[in-house]
Specification:
The chain has nine helices and no strands. It is mainly α.
Length: about 180
């Protein structure tokens, strides 16, 4: 779909178009990069309950891209999208709980969220879940299970796979960020 078609649909209140156009502005693909505009569009879609937009807006809030950094708001947005089964949001929310960013640290909850996203084949969630098993964080230490999860991660992509559609929260460390 071209930018003009997306813009027309977004102007009519189409949440999917608003989210897609917001992603384009966030990344500068097909349009000049404009993070403030990306936030506006994702907010409009998120207000309609669009899970991907909620997740993407959560990333923007968590990182301070296009909006003031607000990790507590990011957690709220990730939770709203995770409640709809969005694997990227489940993974991102798991990272927030694993690290205590925006919410009280809760490694057992992080494991639950990584597991939910991993069951949908989310590569970063598989990797993060493997780390939790390897380190015994939120779950009994089980290096064999960790290895299984790492192998599943490789089968779906690299350990540097991203938690979000916008690619702003990549996993580059051994532990969830």
């Amino acid at each position: 779909m071209n930018v003009d078609t997306l813009q027309a649909a977004a102007d009519q209140g189409d949440a999917s178009a608003q989210c897609a156009l917001g992603n384009m502005y966030a990344t500068g693909r097909g349009v000049a990069k404009n993070e403030a505009r990306a936030v506006q569009l994702c907010q409009a879609a998120a207000d309609q309950g669009h899970a991907a937009a909620q997740c993407n807006l959560g990333v923007m809030c968590a990182t301070g891209r296009g909006v003031a950094k607000n990790e507590a708001r990011a957690v709220e947005l990730f939770q709203a999208a995770a409640d709809q089964g969005d694997a990227g949001a489940q993974c991102a929310l798991g990272v927030m709980y694993a690290t205590g960013r925006g919410a009280a640290k809760n490694e057992a909850r992080a494991v639950e969220l990584f597991q939910a996203a991993a069951e949908q084949g989310h590569a970063t969630a598989l990797f993060n879940l493997g780390n939790m098993y390897r380190d015994g964080r939120g779950v009994a230490k089980d290096e064999a299970r960790a290895m299984q999860l790492y192998q599943a991660t490789r089968a779906r992509g690299s350990p540097s796979a991203t938690c979000t559609r916008t690619g702003t929260a990549s996993q580059r460390t051994r532990r969830p960020r």
